[in-house]
Specification:
CATH superfamily of the largest domain: SGNH hydrolase
Strand content: 15-25%
Number of helices: 9
Low-confidence stretches: 1-17, 22-37
Order of helices and strands: EEEEHHEHHEHEEEHEHHHE
Number of strands: 11
CATH topology of the largest domain: Rossmann fold
Strand order of the largest sheet: 5-4-6-7-10
Length: 307
């Protein structure tokens, strides 16, 4: 019998921290490295976008038409969008988790954009554990902003103010049905919004190129009508599924605001300006019938890097 030479080919494709990793090698039964049509060791890296916040961020992925889901679709093939929103969390609790959460995303040097929206739990009535006093909220937000910019050195940070709600006073009737207690008021919401806005504007003086703020009140309420003490926020009812959480229409408004602000402040981070990880111009790709292996690899892997 003639001796049969066996060849073992290993092709491994793994996604690690938003990175697509290929390792292709061929080894004969003699242990020698064989020629392979695949790359020996290449990595395709995705840029990262991280969304940090409370339920208004978390539900942006879990609700139909959520703003985070829309953002994921917007950056499809260009960047990985990671939702790190945690319902019921305030600035006090979340500040301890910021750096570990960013590390979990993967290569922090690939994080290009972070959004931060906190405060809607902080301003609830002080009877509740969620409450954070205004001065402490300001200090927490300052610390969180500094931590993000330090831990993700190449990231831009878009802070969003705590948004308005559709009612002047929200009552908590669960604990005392016969005598409901005040849960939140729109006046408190505006105080924390004003504080967030002022804080970011003051920090921008030294971080102009990396930090900006999206005023959600001006986004949702036209002509600054909220400055009128008798303003009736019920006009926003079509944007909310309950007193404070967005419906699909409200999520769309927030998504449009984030996209527009990002494009105006950091044009290079607009999805339309970001290069796709894998090429879109399939018309220029060598066909399978051509047998042009080198040409196909060159086209598909033009953005790949050697490890």
């Amino acid at each position: 019998m003639s001796r049969i030479s066996l060849t073992l080919t290993l092709c491994l494709g793994v996604v690690i921290g938003g990175t697509l990793l290929f390792v292709v090698s061929s080894t004969s039964n003699s242990g020698k490295k064989m020629h392979s049509t695949g790359p020996s060791s290449l990595v395709i890296r995705h840029n990262q976008i991280v969304l940090i916040g409370d339920s208004l961020t978390e539900y942006g992925s879990s609700e139909p038409g959520g703003w985070a889901s829309l953002l994921t679709a917007e950056y499809s093939r260009r960047a990985t969008v990671s939702n790190r929103g945690y319902a019921s969390y305030n600035s006090w609790w979340l500040k301890f988790a910021i750096e570990p959460l960013l590390r979990d995303v993967g290569n922090v040097n690939r994080i290009k954009l972070v959004t931060l929206m906190l405060g809607s739990n902080d301003y609830v009535n002080e009877r509740y554990p969620k409450h954070v006093p205004l001065d402490m909220y300001i200090e927490n937000m300052k610390e969180i902003i500094q931590t993000i910019l330090r831990a993700a050195p190449h990231a831009k940070l878009l802070v969003m103010t705590p948004p308005p709600m559709k009612i002047r006073i929200a009552w908590d009737g669960e604990q005392s049905p016969s005598n409901p207690l005040v849960f939140v008021t729109i006046e408190d919401a505006k105080r924390y919004r004003d504080a967030c806005l002022s804080l970011v504007e003051s920090l921008k003086k030294d971080l102009e190129s990396r930090l900006d703020v999206l005023d959600t009140w001006n986004l949702f309420i036209k002509d600054k009508k909220y400055e009128n003490p008798s303003y009736d926020p019920s006009e926003l009812s079509h944007l909310f599924k309950d007193n404070r959480h967005f419906n699909a229409e409200g999520n769309r408004v927030l998504f449009d605001g984030v996209v527009a602000k990002t494009a105006s402040q950091w044009p290079e981070l607009s999805a339309t300006k970001m290069e796709t990880v894998l090429p879109l111009d399939w018309q220029n790709a060598p066909s399978a019938l051509s047998g042009d292996v080198d040409g196909a690899k060159k086209w598909v892997l033009k953005n790949a890097e050697e490890l």
